[in-house]
Amino acid sequence: MLPKRTLMGPGPSNIYPEVLRAMSQPTIGHLDPAFVGLMDEINTLLQRAFITQNAVTLPISAPGSAGMECCFVNLLEPGDKVVIAINGVFGGRMMENARRCGAHPVPVEFEWGTPIDPNRVEDVLKENSDATAIAFVHSETSTGVRSDAKSLCQLARQYDCLSIVDAVTSLGGIELRIDDWGVDAVYSGSQKCLSAPPGLSPVSFNERAMDKATNRKAPAQSWFLDLALLTGYWSTGSKRAYHHTAPVNSLFALHAALEILHREGLENSWQRHADTYQQLHDGLQELDIEYLVDPEYRLPQLNTVKVPAGVNEAEIRTRLLNEFNLEIGAGLGPMAGKYWRIGLMGASCTSEHVELCLKALQAVLHH
Amino acid sequence: MLPKRTLMGPGPSNIYPEVLRAMSQPTIGHLDPAFVGLMDEINTLLQRAFITQNAVTLPISAPGSAGMECCFVNLLEPGDKVVIAINGVFGGRMMENARRCGAHPVPVEFEWGTPIDPNRVEDVLKENSDATAIAFVHSETSTGVRSDAKSLCQLARQYDCLSIVDAVTSLGGIELRIDDWGVDAVYSGSQKCLSAPPGLSPVSFNERAMDKATNRKAPAQSWFLDLALLTGYWSTGSKRAYHHTAPVNSLFALHAALEILHREGLENSWQRHADTYQQLHDGLQELDIEYLVDPEYRLPQLNTVKVPAGVNEAEIRTRLLNEFNLEIGAGLGPMAGKYWRIGLMGASCTSEHVELCLKALQAVLHH
């Protein structure tokens, strides 16, 4: 028997019972007309979540890391130069992806815990006028920092680059406007603020991005992630062409999670994340627990806070898990051992969870 | 409300209620000790299903197509020559994977519906003594043909090649012995004879394969499918290193499905597939429906049969779906319009399902 946890780490978040029930519906064929109808609905529900009219808006049948790779292998060709802003783990992963595509990544590094400074990115774009893309993380899950995606995407357009945006932790939790901001390619994850089970990566590509993807000299190096094949599989009507077997039950779950999001309303969901963050923030202040990130750049859904002096952070997490069935996250990379990451994502983002978390932290820190 | 289907196509197969219940357990963190314990158990359960001691035996967090790609991107380097036997759709997909790795695939083609002839493969190996790998499909899901994996893997060893084996439709349904047969790398799927939901691809690599994967000049071109990173994530104990977020609930389901398989017994499962095939075969004979494949090469779990003359095959499948909630598969590629594929996989492989299928076919063909 598995334990029941309150999930307040960097994801996965708790899943609504309705979503778990949807996922456990009997599997149907991935070519069944009933399933094809569900795919069309997922396309529409995702467009609304991303606030986009992009036809190519679909969930990759694999986790967020595959969504990232889908963007890189389709939008970069060998030799292409891509400017990558790095202010945490996932910017570093983008470097790795670009190298493996045979592209030339140009890193622009920022201190972990600070946002990406568009001015410094612009300086690098000026020095690299042959760059074809810029890539950055909107919500850095490793540090809890929000960067200014709108300005960065405008820069990309100004310097004739495609923008590739990591919105894994953004979608559903904070403002994200794909069309208004001019985001060319974006990937997210199912297991953060959407509160669907981990394993799917919603992506969206506009026409500029699809132009690049479909006018490559050679096909994308990944067959599984080839947008030309994926769009054939996800296209509506009689043009649909078999590519892989979709993860049917996971898509049942994503569909249900997206319906819950839109029932609440996207902007209401953003507001709930902001309000619940404030409650957590106030409670942590009373416990003298400090934030890593300056208030204006903080992600409400991912709170990186300092481990109090003299405290064994791993022991505290273990006690929270064992005594309260409460999961919070450890620090990643240079943050390991010094910071915790407290997530307020999707179904995990409630006033009751904040109360539990504060009560539990107080108990284990003082006894 | 989704329809409840009897799934007798080429996969997904029906899922046991116990597996659906396991999948709908509340999500826990992918670094939770309870989940890490489950990963270790999945490793052991998969080793038993593949009949292997290979330490690197794990489910890729994506469908079978990604399992195929994992083998190719890790075991082939640019310029490597790979001999690929093709007797259906999935051999063709291997060609595409090899090309995208920058490898030189040498195809050996066989008529669809016939097995791979090891003698012809050996001729090609003799002419291509610089080949480093051979790849082939054990159970061709597009035609219902079983090829002689043991002989082909022996050939690979004899010509100093790695063997890459597609066992997507084999695992759990027919004899498959990774260690005894000397299979170097194998991938399968969750949604065929294991009767777990689609979306996972169990793979296994022996030391010869891992030698190649870990001594490459450059890392694998896929970050998501890089075996060096995946084995770090799936390694036991304190060495475990974060790679991606595992599809937690899908792994709950795979775990439950593997427990059911081993409760029945692997060889008992093979026998059930053989017996149920015989029942279907006898019934189809009474309906004058003929098989594509010679008896000795037939897969019990995937029956490719001729559409009777003058029958609109798509209309029949639609009627089976609408009147009996029964899914059977269409032909793929050159088989389209002329053949059906009737699957008997995992939970779908029962005497009752065969009776339903025969009754339904008789009804719609004669009215």
Structure description:
The structure is a homodimer of 367-residue chains. The first copy, chain A, is of the alpha/beta class and 367 residues long. Chain A folds into two domains: 6-12 and 265-366, Aspartate Aminotransferase, domain 1 (Alpha-Beta Complex); 17-262, Type I PLP-dependent aspartate aminotransferase-like (Major domain) (Aspartate Aminotransferase, domain 2), CATH 3.40.640.10. Chain A is 42% helix and 16% strand. The first copy, chain A, has helices spanning 17-23, 33-50, 64-75, 89-100, 118-127, 149-158, 178-181, 207-214, 227-234, 248-264, 266-286, 313-324, 351-366, and strands at 6-8, 56-60, 81-86, 104-109, 131-137, 139-140, 145-146, 162-166, 185-187, 201-205, 302-306, 326-330, 339-343. In chain A, the strands form three sheets. In chain A, strands 2-10-9-8-5-3-4 form a seven-stranded mixed beta sheet, sandwiched between helices. Chain A has a four-stranded mixed beta sheet with strand order 1-12-13-11. The longest helix of chain A has 21 residues, at 266-286. Chain A is globular. At the A-B interface, helix 1, helix 2, helix 3, helix 4 and helix 10 of A face helix 1, helix 2, helix 3, helix 4 and helix 10 of B.
